[in-house]
């Protein structure tokens, strides 16, 4: 089973989440920014794609990447300062999923909440990002890909 992790990040949080995700995946799994995303993703069993929320939707570069992705198993992760259990968060994710190329399937979704009072602060305090949960999301997602 092989995977790739692609992320869009402005202040570094989504990049850190992406690195935690890749730490839960087989050794050698690529982790690249959307600027370096390969055009052909058909060789991957699973594509993890991460973005940050900007004005209630995926950030512009994240949207661009989502539009280019076609894969049976796409795992979407987002960072946002809205409550991750809110209707608004579900709309963020739904909006992102709907950008994927037709025929794509979604194998998992994951949201990291960021503190609204600190969201413009750089560098990012790693302890606030629940990186263990992001790693667990990656492991759980891959185990579901394997079971298919
Ligand atoms: C310009 C801007 C707009 C944002 N808009 C939203 C938003 O509409 N909803 C939300 O939940 N978070 C919003 N955020 C919070 C970011 O999604 C959050 O800080 C995220 O962790 C940034 O990711 P990054 O560190 O990878 O760039 C916004 C952040 C910025 C800088």
From TrEMBL:
InterPro entries: Flavodoxin/NO_synth, Flavodoxin_CS, Flavoprotein-like_sf. Pfam families: Flavodoxin_3. SUPFAM superfamilies: Flavoproteins (SSF52218). Residues 5-113 form the Flavodoxin-like domain. It comes from the Bacteria. This is Flavodoxin family protein. It comes from Megasphaera massiliensis.
